[in-house]
Design goal:
The structure holds two protein chains of two kinds. The radius of gyration of chain A is 23 Å and the shape is extended. By secondary structure, chain A is of the alpha+beta class. Chain A has six helices and five strands; from the N terminus they run αααββααβαββ. A five-stranded antiparallel β-sheet of chain A has the order 2-1-3-4-5, covered by helices on one side. By secondary structure, chain B is mainly alpha-helical. Chain B has one domain. Helices cover 74% and strands 0% of the residues of chain B. Chain B is elongated. The two termini of chain B are 34 Å apart. Classes of the chains: A alpha+beta, B mainly alpha. Chains A and B meet through helix 1, helix 3, helix 4 and helix 5 of A and helix 1, helix 4, helix 7 and helix 8 of B.
């Protein structure tokens, strides 16, 4: 009976944490006006998000054992994020195009590539994340690493310009008139690989 | 007080009903299949996805650094690589062993052999891969971690 009580208490704590994570995710969406709910609720949602974040110990110091314990448990259980990935949402499509400038002066286009479909799906997921303002601090370093992976296949390249943008599909009537998808650049980086300089030029 | 005790008993009956464990068999076979397919589909890109800086698509260290912002105690492939380094195994070998271990654990779950150790090893190795993947991980990884955690 004691073990059953321990299991029951564990299940209670587990589902409490899942509820907090999910509500926090919902409040975050409401606070950023990403739902059909009236914008008058934004402030309440933001306050709710802050309260729930404090339940998860997010307002504590990064080395606080309570905060570390909850974060470790949630990651171990795969419940560190809400269930937004089940939502019937068609994500945007983003593309990273690389302009490779060779030493002999010619230029060619390339993209980061992987061998299998499963890894390609992950690469697409990564590119979609880079478009999110939340990931802005990681953009340059991530693009740099992606550029590095391509550069290793083209050691004679002098400079690489990485252009990141969204691919916008045409609407039905435009498609019927022969219009195809368009590429909208969001930002670009120039990497000079030989002299290990890089210059970022976000647009 | 009696009422509270009755509610507690009702809750226990609800949480621990007397029933067959067929659902557990279905979950085990499903997760074993999922795990085997996951590893086989990533076979060609496994090293490329999880290699360190300047060896793969995006550095494994970047993903692990992002994960460590939440907590340094979350399992990562970097732990296994460091452990392998102590016994003279290179990064490539450790990644290959992790991949093979994950595939074997998936097959054992599928076949019902050594189910508990296989489930624990599968959960740990998959968690390491999902957390080291960092930006390359997505919802399906969370779903698998949840299933294996159960």
């Amino acid at each position: 009976m004691t073990s059953k009580r321990i299991y029951a208490a564990w299940a209670g704590v587990h589902f409490f944490l899942i509820t907090v994570i999910c509500l926090r995710g919902i409040f975050a969406l409401v606070a950023t006006d990403a739902t059909i709910l009236p914008s008058a609720l934004n402030t309440c949602a933001r306050s709710g998000e802050v309260v729930l974040a404090s339940v998860l110990g997010k307002d504590l110091a990064a080395s606080n054992p309570w905060r570390l314990g909850i974060a470790t448990y949630l990651h171990a259980a795969g419940s560190q994020a809400g269930y937004g990935f089940f939502a019937p949402n068609i994500p945007g499509y983003h593309k990273l195009t690389l302009e490779l400038y060779h030493e002999d002066g010619h230029m060619e286009y390339d993209v980061p590539h992987v061998q299998g479909g499963a890894a390609a799906l992950r690469l697409d997921s990564l590119l979609d994340r880079l478009a999110d303002p939340l990931y802005e601090p990681l953009r340059e370093v991530t693009v740099k690493l992606l550029v590095l992976s391509v550069w290793q296949e083209h050691p004679d390249v002098k400079k690489i310009r990485a252009i990141f943008g969204s691919v916008n599909p045409p609407n039905i009537s435009d498609f019927e008139h022969g219009k195809r998808e368009s590429f909208q650049p969001l930002f670009s980086y120039d990497f000079s690989l030989r002299n290990e300089e890089n210059q970022s030029t976000p647009q | 007080m009696k009422q509270l005790r009755a509610w507690g008993n009702d809750l226990m009956v609800f949480l621990f009903p007397l029933e067959t464990d067929r659902w557990l068999t279905v979950l085990r076979i499903g997760l074993g299949l999922q795990l085997a397919v996951y590893t086989l589909f990533l076979k060609n890109d496994w090293h490329y996805l999880f290699a360190g800086t300047a060896k793969g698509l995006v550095s494994r260290e970047l993903g692990e650094a992002i994960t460590s912002l939440d907590s340094p105690f979350i399992p990562k492939l970097g732990w296994l690589v460091a452990l392998g380094g102590h016994i003279g195994l290179g990064e490539e070998m450790v990644l290959s062993v992790a991949w093979a271990g994950l595939l074997c654990a998936g097959c054992f779950l599928l076949l019902g052999l050594f189910c508990r150790p296989a489930a624990i090893i599968a959960w740990f190795l998959h968690l390491c891969a999902a957390e080291s993947g960092g930006l390359l991980a997505y919802g399906a990884d969370n779903l698998m971690t949840m299933g294996l955690f159960i």
